[in-house]
Amino acid sequence: VELTVAQSALFSADGSNLSGPPYSGPRIKPLLDGINSPNDMKSLDISELKQLAHEIRWDVLENVSKTGGHLSSSLGVVELTVALHYVFDMPEDDIIWDVSHQCYPHKMLTGRRSQFPTLRQQGGISGFCKRKESVYDSFGAGHSTTSISAAQGMSVAKSMLNKRKNNNIAVIGDGAITGGMAYEAMNSAGYLKNRMIVVLNDNGQVSLPTGTQSAGGVIPASQLSAYTSNLLVSKPFQDFRDFAKNFNKILPENIQDVNKRIDEYARGIVSGGTLFEELGFYYVGPLDGHDLDNMVPILEKLRDSDSNKPVLLHIKTNKGQGYPPAEAASDKMHGVGKFDLGTGVQFKSKGGQPSLTSIFANALIDQATEDRTVVGITAAMPGGTGMDIFGRRFPKRTFDVGIAEQHAVTFAAGMACEGLKPFCCIYSTFLQRGYDQVIHDVAVQNLPVRFMLDRAGLVGNDGPTHHGCYDLAYMGAIPNLTIMSPSDEIELKNMVTTCALHDDGPTVLRYPRGTGYGPKILQELFGYDLENGAIPAKGTALPIGKGRIVRVPGGINLAKYGASSQLSRLNRGRERKDRVAILSFGTRLHEALVAANEVEESDPTIGVTVADARFMKPLDIDLVRELVDENCALITIEEGSIGGFGSHVLQFLSLDGALDNGQLKFRPMVLPDVYFEAATQAEQYEEAGLNSRHIKGTVLRMMERIEIPVLQDL
């Protein structure tokens, strides 16, 4: 690794080693140790700010190596974070971090350094900005492209309330700025002339990971990224003297309008700033985002200006800056698990089953191999959705549209109009951003777009902004949609095939973050009869709207024994009053089967039937009626909020008259009406009450085998 003279001087004196591996940071961090709030930075000089940045970078590395988290984004904004907190006065001034996954240096400077061992853990600090966590977190985030709108709203509010200071800084990356909401906000800010600074953090990393093979090649999935890259090479980095020469032109009253327009046009030819200037912004840049010597005085000048004209400050940074393994990695070590600090090698469990994401991607490859009209679409998340795997096999049929879910949905609708089979692959939480397009552009026209919703349910350490809790509720309300969810990896393959062959309207396939179960569990618990003990290589299309009974009383599996399984009722559940059914939608089927076995082991009289609904829309009403006829109690379970599968079943039962005579007990098990903070998935499902012991408890209470506490006794 070649180091500049300045880097060599800085990094060798304190024991740091960047010429490794093994890599190491400073042995002590005296400046960072003395900072508990941004005010503690104000007396430092530029050389000390540089040393502080170095200490922060290695403190981030040391902590994230032990907890995992978003690494390289934070490493890339260390100097920017130091400069912003040095120049501006939070919390009176507002700094809004778009997405906010790059907020670790910000949290360290605002009194939370000691809490970093709890990062993204149950009861610990969040990996994103959260207003309830600190007064220094001006605006919460997790999704992208919200910062400019929020900063503009704060600017207007401060102006209307006559607040003494009105400094609002939105920090947004060249990935997040591909989202249309950024341009809506800039258009409005320029029109209303709101005082604000937008820092465009340009690191050339639009998608996760950038460089995935697709129809656009391996370059960043954004023409805007190409445009800003051209700005960076069209002239050298601007220094403070260059900036100061023209800065008075930010004040419209200092120059005549005609001269102003000529000047802006001339600057646009030289620097390429006209796109942002046409939106009403004063363009400053490009600047080296790791150069505190220039960033600090320029930010001070912008802070002290009396102008109300919005400013766009364009900086160039390196994602993963200062840590060679991150700088060299294809994904820049964006999101990491625990890793060896000396080498950058991540600790990963050995063996294990493949992820559901990879199973989906390979199942889609199977379909695309047989049908050239199958295409894949992602909104800047090729790695998270499996489109990177698909793209390696079919690059010309892989489309990364950037962080633009609305566009992705309508883009898919246009493809469907012309006879392609688009698989629109988006995290459940991110499809919320394209909801109107799902209705207006796809469902109303009944176009056969295939929505593949990865990360459905609880996702673990990223917390409430990333859980896929609501898709069943918000998609279930839309006519024309076919909605399905697999209970295991075999069903996932089957449902990918089902979606590929279904041309009569839009389909939704939702599946959680996680891995498959493997042949052993599939055979012993789920009752699959696998040829040679192997999972089928390809999926088989399922009949639309038809579920299946997986287990009957006695634990005999219908798939193995068919009608003879009815013999099991000779020993338990002889009467309807002793029989209960669990109707599962999605991967809680595993927990339902475990609970059924435990219930029957604990009580020889109860008979438990477990069914897999497979589809929420259309609902298998014949299966539901069969379960109602045979059992005195029915439980539904799903990985979603209220308003989803259980609500649809209850609606049907009510309209079908199944509840009229009081002969049926019904309980929906759903995610509670709360936001789940960062924790492991296992901890979150335990908190949600959706594990086997909770299902068992629900069964025993409904069957009156355990006493239900009276409210006043609690």
Automatic annotation (TrEMBL):
Task: Write the Enzyme Commission number(s) for this entry.
Answer: 2.2.1.7
GO biological-process terms attached to the record:
glyceraldehyde-3-phosphate metabolic process; terpenoid biosynthetic process; thiamine biosynthetic process
Superkingdom of the source? Eukaryota
Record Pfam families: DXP_synthase_N, Transket_pyr, Transketolase_C
Arranged from A to Z, the UniProt key words for this protein are: Isoprene biosynthesis, Magnesium, Metal-binding, Thiamine biosynthesis, Thiamine pyrophosphate, Transferase
GO molecular-function annotation terms?
1-deoxy-D-xylulose-5-phosphate synthase activity; metal ion binding
- Show the Gene3D superfamilies listed in the entry: 3.40.50.920, 3.40.50.970
- The Transketolase-like pyrimidine-binding domain covers which part of the protein? 354-519
Q: What is the official name of this protein in its record?
A: 1-deoxy-D-xylulose-5-phosphate synthase
Q: Which organism is it from?
A: Proboscia inermis
